[in-house]
Prior knowledge:
Layout: E1 5-9, H1 16-30, E2 37-41, H2 47-54, E3 60-63, H3 80-85, E4 90-93, H4 96-101, H5 106-118, E5 122-127, H6 131-135, H7 139-150, E6 162-166, H8 180-198, H9 200-205, E7 208-211, H10 216-223, E8 230-233, H11 240-247
Parallel strand pairs: 1-2, 1-8, 2-3, 3-4, 4-5, 5-6, 6-7, 7-8
Helix pairs in contact: 1-2, 5-7, 7-8, 10-11
The site of 1,3-dihydroxyacetonephosphate has 14 residues, from strand 8.
Amino acid sequence: MRKTFIAGNWKMNLSKQQATDLAAAIAASIGTGTNVDVAVCPPFGYLDAVRGALGDSAVRLGAQNLNANESGAFTGEISGPMLRDLGCELVIVGHSERRELFGECDQLVNLKAKAGLKYGLHVILCVGETLEQREAGETNRIVGSQVLGSLADISPEQMSNVTLAYEPIWAIGTGKVATPQQAEEVHSHLRDILTQQFGDEVAQQTRIQYGGSVKPGNAEELLAQPNIDGALVGGASLEPESFTGIIGHG
Ligand code: 13P
């Protein structure tokens, strides 16, 4: 009942030409209808060009970050309304690279999530633990508090526009994928947290993506887990064949 959702996070990669070529190839492969929701999240500067390259395909456009304010003196930032203006339908918030490299805490991620929803964007909220936290048996506690902190003041109704992404930091860009069992265990815990916070109906409807070294070769087994509803793909989303290969397992 939860439609699989595969999103590509291109991070800070590609030239403009490469970005539009990639978008056009994905759009051609997906076409206008698919039983899997698909989105790509290019760097800000390519959003407009990628929007054009996606044409009338079913591939949705997303951004990797936003500022929580509507407009004003925030040098170097981009707002929700601007992302909408550029054709974005969704935005990633709370990625571990933003948390670790740019000092984003749950409180700021929460402001960004609320701003995304306020301005009509679907929000992909990322959570995940470090290797040290996993080895200390802290995974469930850490991801649970990230989810609750980042979703503070968000109503059950608004949750229809939220997707969670569990991305263990030790699996991002390392080639070290969580086993399907490891991922499923955390996803199941996240769904329990959603049940406690928002009730069973919301918890059953909310999609939880897995992210961290997802490739065509491991996607099938991950996506077969009952609580893994999609993937947030980094490196493998930069090549049309590998990204569509993952989508083929959805
Ligand atoms: P990789 O797929 O490159 O490990 O990246 C995962 C990720 O961070 C997606 O947001």
